[in-house]
Amino acid sequence: MHPSILDDYALKSPLRHKNSRLKLAIVAAALLVGISSTSPVAPLFIALTMSFASIRLGEVPAGFYAKLLAPPLAFALFGTAVILLFFGSGPEIFSFSLLGQSLGATVEGAELSLLVLSRTVSGTSCLFFLALTTPMVELFALLKGLRIPDSLVELSMMIYRYIFVLLEVAISMTHAQAMRLGYDGFLRSIRSFSMMAGTLFIRSWEQGERLCTAMDARCYDGRLSLFEEKRPVKAQELLGACGYVAAIAALAYLTRGTALI
Amino acid sequence: MHIMEGFLPHPWWEAWYALSLPVVVYGIYRMNQLVKERRETLPLLALAGAFIFVLSSLKLPSVTGSCSHPTGAGMGAILFGPAITAVLCLVVLVYQALFLAHGGLTTLGANLFSMGIAGPAVAYLIYRSAGKLKLNFYISIFLAVTVADLATYIVTSLQLALAFPSATGGVVGSFYAFGAIFAVTQIPLAILEGVVIALIFKYIIQVKGDVMVRLRVIDEKRLGELKGAIPA
């Protein structure tokens, strides 16, 4: 029942040792191209290449990747169904009546929903690429360099550290409750869940107080210094990245306004 | 309720970023002030943020069978006020996007506005006004959290409707459409979360009520009354 956290895979990824600035730049560029494209062609291409990069270069098992992609995809389909049924004018593709209301899809609505779906898939695969190849610890140093206020970065680092501690506590408490039939029946589940969460809050509060003492003892002055490993970008990698971004931007430009239906 | 990466088209995702940014800046300013006053604030806030993340990544026992996660943002607002909750939610939302693929980076602004700003602001207002009206403590928490959840859901529907107005009914038409579809899961969930958070507060007050007094959620007198009311 351990929730799968993508960061675990990032720590094992072979792409972890590439420059994180470069990876972030590629992902940001691909996200922007995907979202501003007016035709589904470029987003679909980005989705394919990003998934390929995660699976082949990042060595993420393909089956696991598909499992990851399924829930966001299901949610996206749900959302696009609404767009399909309520948006657009022009020739109708089909229509039916539900509870006395007639619902139908038009060509324009179908085009828009396909576009939104492709953008979502493209964005999600970009996000997965970043999440599966770049551990959060590598990003902190980058954030400090981006002039994000120190207190915010410090807060994020401490939150990151304690997510795993608290998750473990929460899971073992839930197991203990389940062993004692704490999740048998709906009302009892609610009671057990709240009791677990309340205890978790108290535990985290006490942990926080102990953390203060520990950090004071080590002369914490509001700034944890980070050791950032130097990972120079190879000319080859930089060229490849620029080529990729130029290619997707060109594709988005050339196919602008093209509809698949 | 997270809006997926890539779901919001061009002017809208930037617009929600622009709306959320000032609140976050103000939140960071407030947080820095607090940290300067009392240095132990930062670790405690960090633990609270981690708690919100863990709470939101655990599955609630749910009636509808859908994947339902309590957001914890309403609780944060009651404990720390809406400005600081916005900062905590920003960090939590980035982690949710990167670790769990909930939400996204381009839709971060919109998600932050609905879940980290609108919801907590409503929760805070209701909790404070219920306190003035001398409403029962647990009922006021339930109301604050439930209404905040509903506010989040309404704002999300509005965000989607503004981006995708329907051909016949315009923004209002598609607002009803998105609203009706999400209502199926969101209304029971809002009530459920209200109950759960109220119970969480009950356990915290039983065991460690002094934390609530220190955070100025309740005063000493109220704590005594509440503790007296719970049979030990």
UniProtKB/TrEMBL annotation, chain A:
It is found in: Cell membrane. The keyword Cell inner membrane does not apply. GO terms for cellular component: ATP-binding cassette (ABC) transporter complex. It comes from the Archaea. It is a multi-pass membrane protein. Keywords: Cell membrane, Membrane, Transmembrane, Transmembrane helix. Pfam families: CbiQ. GO terms for biological process: cobalt ion transport. The keyword Transmembrane applies. PANTHER family: COBALT TRANSPORT PROTEIN CBIQ. This is Cobalt ABC transporter, inner membrane subunit CbiQ.
